[in-house]
Amino acid sequence: MSDRITLDHGSGGKASHDLIEEIFLSSFSNKTLNALEDSALVQIGSERLAFTTDSYVVDPIFFPGGNIGDLAINGTINDLAMRGATPLYISVAMILEEGLAISDLKTIVASMQEAAMTANVQIVAGDTKVVPVGKADKIFINTTGIGTVSEGVEINGSNGRVGDKIILSGTMADHGITILCQREGLAISGDFCSDTAPLHQLVAAMIADSPGQIHVLRDPTRGGVATTLQELATSSQVGILLRETALPIRADVQGACELLGMDPLHLANEGKLLAFVAPEVAEQTIAILHRLPHGSNAAIIGEVKADHPGEVLLETVVGSHRRINMLHGQPLPRIC
Amino acid sequence: MSDRITLDHGSGGKASHDLIEEIFLSSFSNKTLNALEDSALVQIGSERLAFTTDSYVVDPIFFPGGNIGDLAINGTINDLAMRGATPLYISVAMILEEGLAISDLKTIVASMQEAAMTANVQIVAGDTKVVPVGKADKIFINTTGIGTVSEGVEINGSNGRVGDKIILSGTMADHGITILCQREGLAISGDFCSDTAPLHQLVAAMIADSPGQIHVLRDPTRGGVATTLQELATSSQVGILLRETALPIRADVQGACELLGMDPLHLANEGKLLAFVAPEVAEQTIAILHRLPHGSNAAIIGEVKADHPGEVLLETVVGSHRRINMLHGQPLPRIC
User: Fold this and answer.
1) In terms of domains, do A57 and A177 share one?
2) Positive or negative CA dihedral for A125, A113, B91, B129?
3) Structural domain contains residue B158
4) Which of A14-18, A247-251, B58-62 has the lowest average pLDDT?
5) Which of A260, B2, B210, B228 is most exposed, with the fewest beta carbons within 10 Å of its own?
6) What mean pLDDT value characterizes chain A?
7) What is the DSSP string of A25-55?
8) What is the pLDDT of residues A122-169, one digit of tens each?
9) Closest chain A residue to the Cα of B89, Cα to Cα
């Protein structure tokens, strides 16, 4: 590891994982943290709680489809939902740069409240710090959430089983390509829009229909679908086979990725989930997702294999296979 | 209110309160948040949980007595303790500036783990973001904590009662004066050291000895003892009388404050608590605090009065009375 923090360390890819392993886990090590799930699961009295934190530093703070505020609320709701939790309470801590327009802050706060109300969660705790101009970039927001996990719900990244079907709940790379085009002022034709959205209703419906058959849930944010699946192949010690023709992606996003030489499998999503489900419930799960907001483009994109444990293989359009890796380097700093 | 965020908004004083009222509470309004306690209290199933968040942006990140890491852990432990909670779990979210020395990060992380172990809390969830050089200042840390509150414990800022004695658990202004001297490179003679420390043991001992008689607890961080007491006078709708001669303060800190023209009542503390306790248990509470680490200089500094509700009066050394106000303006940005 280098002796200085680099942007790669924030990519969500290989360098982030190395930093977490070498610096954080080596010091903070405990069973709950080491699981490296989207939420920690803790038992308090008779209650099983999911607990998750994320700081948001996205640039720009306003973008088509949302802003840093609803992104922060939805992101924490989703991290709770990925453990099968019902989101209940969220804390909001803001770091504001001197000079931030109060009108921008009001817009962001209103979006946060709307996102919280949509998901029926309460913002119950807060903190505000201000730093001098040039010591932050407009606004950074931390959201930390608590939810409850019902008895019998066991959804985690080690729970993938050979034969599971892999579902992606909608089109990929929308958030990543939107932020990239906004930030760089790229005039690529396309109607790009962040997919920021809460996913807890999708999760609740899937679990209600097929309790015990939903094995793994994860939202592919930083590092994209490829990085998330690589993590899951490792944590479940299984092989993953994806079918390129099955991957849902908007034509304009696909085109923009080709133009920019970026792999949409590595671009961030903020309103999509990956699910590993028992094969016998895969089709009915897709049917359920199709009826819900944010699930209309859900598709089975691959399956879990015994071969090549720890690897993700993509069966390409022409029938060849190539290995998919975790994101290396940092094509897009400050994506969320 | 101005149309831009200013450093005053982060002072913990009057401008911070106005920002919270006008922007955050007007949008996020709910009973739990509106209480504006150090921790929110939420009921989940049969459990009463305290939940609190704080971001730390202190400059410099290393200072005599601690660093931003143990400050962040102790600060969140203390916010939980001020509701009478037993701290259990903490999340840690870091925003790192590109270029931060990995060795500094390791030192900070080690301090955090040590502080967590000292207080018997687990760091169970985390997040790391990296922003380009010049878009943050080395490192910002958010810590969010969960603790449990036993049945019958009702400690909050509205619970101050006429006749209560007011206890300060040790010398004031140590953290504030230390950060100020470090940051400005002031060569004032004195052996200044931050008081960053966990206060949950003091609280547990006080509650165990006098259940129901400990009415209010609050740690006077940003804005100092004066601002915190002003908040409490308002929330409890009582008058507060302080005795200047009773205020514990180190001689060198007092001297530095005089030299700099600063009121130690407005300077931050990071290992002290204010308690409003029933008069019949005040002396025994002091005796308990004196036997514990971080409580050896505890003193009764005043009492709660029916006169002048909402006001804090200081009986000076010469016997006159002057009104103490919330901090206005921002003598010390980025104190925590």
Assistant:
1) no
2) negative
3) no
4) A14-18
5) B2
6) 95
7) IHHH--HHHHT--SSEEEEETTEEEEEEEEE
8) 999 999 999 999 999 999 999 999 999 999 999 999 999 999 999 999
9) A42
* Predicted model pTM: 0.96
- Please give the Cα distance from A173 to A268 (Å, whole number): 5
B residues 154..213 contacting A (CB < 8 A): none
Which chain B residue's Cα is nearest to A9? Answer: B130
Q: Name the domain count of chain A.
A: 2
**Residue B76: inside a domain:** yes
Task: For the sheet with B122-131, list strands across it.
Answer: B40-44, B47-56, B139-148, B86-97, B122-131
Confidence check: pLDDT of A186 > 90? no
Interface of A with B in 317-336 (CB under 8 A): 333-334
B60: contact with A, CB 8 A cutoff: no
In chain A, which residues have their Cβ closer than 8 Å to the Cβ of B56? 129
> What is residue A207's predicted lDDT score, i.e. its pLDDT?
97
Identify the bridge partners of residue B47 per DSSP, sorted by sequence position.
Answer: B44
**ipTM confidence:** 0.96
pLDDT tens sequence across B180-191 = 999 888 888 888
Mean pLDDT of B310-334: 86
What's the domain range around B80? 35-148
- B249 burial (CB, 10 Å; 0-12 / 13-18 / 19+) is buried
The pair of three-digit structure tokens given for residue A27, joined into one six-digit string? 């010091």
Q: Give the nearest partner residue to A109 out of B6, B23, B32, using CB atoms.
A: B23
Copy the structure tokens of residue B126.
């985390």
Query: Any CB–CB contact under 8 A between B98 and chain A?
Result: yes
Q: How far apart are the CA of A317 and the nearest CA of chain B, in angstroms?
A: 35
Residues 6+ apart with CB under 8 A from A299: A167, A168, A246, A247, A248, A286
CB proximity A117 to B under 8 Å: no
Tell me how close the Cα of B32 comes to any Cα of chain A, in angstroms. 6
Kindly state whether residues B190 and B84 are assigned to the same domain: no
Q: Mapping DSSP to helix (H, G, I), strand (E, B) and coil, where does residue A93 land? A: strand
